[in-house]
Specification:
Strand content: 5-15%
Shape: globular
Strand order of the largest sheet: 3-4-5
Largest sheet: 3 strands, antiparallel
Number of domains: 1
Mean pLDDT: 79
Order of helices and strands: HEEHHHHHHHHHEEEHHHH
Structural class: mainly alpha
Number of strands: 5
Helix content: 40-55%
């Protein structure tokens, strides 16, 4: 991946999904560079797969999504799929359910406003010579501009204190999803196994998106899955699959996803319509069609392990 593309994706993904331009680092997880991540964003169990995800019917069955209000909980994943112009309503709803994981979702919604600010800052501060040449006749560009306007309307309704409350999650906050992600755990330790078991006990799609490939154990430069070391080109395919895994579990990954339309306004990359397109572009699947099938096969293996809660498949085997 080029340095320029890494910078572009860092601008959007860093704001939305908890990434920073260099790495994804947190207690209990190893650094994962944005270049390693390819691109890297409730229910108590995963919701239906995103329509944009083309892996086909999953081999493992998922529980049906719980109707909002059926047991006092809200479908947090639906808040990410709500119209961007209603962002304030979605964010405040998420905050009211922070004890169920809503703070993680509120933070993701608030970061969309941060991503929008970055787009606007670039438009106002960058010299015209550095502005991307965007063909406004492209359907992707028209869609991006429409969604930007909707997001601007939604973000303009937020009060500054509401935005800060959603963005600034204090240590020890009563959000079970953030708490398990930030649980300190040295790789290979009993605490790491407990943390992974907690993640798989409630494999929330947004949480898995924020974890990205760091969900997978590492052995030097290689990734370990199913007891095998995976490196080289195959590692890149597996990391791409880790990015798509949340899409197969219900996360929004289609054209409404700011990870999809944001780069169009930043760098003129307007020919993709889903996160899957981004991943396949980065593994050069158009030149190597077998890589698409390989990535999707990895997605199914990861998804089956997640749905089964099979911790051992994600851990390095004992030596």
């Amino acid at each position: 991946m080029s340095v320029r593309r890494v910078a572009v994706l860092a601008a959007v993904l860093g704001a939305l999904a908890g990434l920073v331009a260099g790495s994804l680092v947190g207690p209990g997880r190893e650094p994962v560079t944005l270049a390693e991540q390819v691109i890297p964003p409730t229910t108590a169990r995963p919701a239906r797969p995103d329509p944009a995800f083309a892996a086909g019917a999953a081999s493992a069955s998922l529980p049906a999504p719980r109707p909002a209000g059926a047991d006092g909980r809200v479908d947090l994943g639906a808040l990410l799929r709500a119209p961007l112009s209603e962002l304030r309503t979605s964010l405040l709803t998420a905050l009211r359910h922070r004890s169920e994981g809503g703070w993680l979702y509120a933070r993701a919604l608030a970061r969309q406003c941060s991503a929008l600010e970055m787009v606007e800052m670039r438009e106002h501060l960058a010299p015209a010579a550095f502005q991307p040449a965007i063909d406004l006749n492209q359907p992707g560009a028209q869609r991006a501009l429409t969604l930007r306007d909707q997001l601007m309307a939604g973000c303009s309704q937020l009060q500054p204190d509401e935005l800060l409350e959603a963005m600034n999650v204090p240590p020890g906050a009563a959000d079970p999803l953030i708490a398990v992600m930030d649980q300190p755990a040295r790789p290979g330790s009993a605490q790491a196994r407990e943390r992974l078991a907690a993640i798989l006990s409630r494999p929330d799609p947004l949480m898995l998106a924020e974890l990205g490939p760091s969900l997978l154990a590492r052995d030097g430069e290689a990734i370990v899955f199913d007891g095998k070391r995976i490196d080289g080109d195959e590692r890149q395919l597996l990391e791409g699959a880790a990015v798509l895994l949340p899409c197969s579990l219900g996360l929004i990954c289609d054209g409404q996803d700011v990870n999809v339309w944001g780069p169009c306004l930043i760098d003129g990359m307007c020919k993709v319509s889903s996160r899957e397109d981004f991943v396949m572009n980065n593994v050069q699947a158009s030149e190597h069609p077998e890589r698409r099938a390989a990535v999707l096969a990895w997605v199914e293996r990861l998804r089956a392990a997640v749905v089964a809660g099979d911790v051992d498949r994600f851990l390095k085997p004992p030596t």
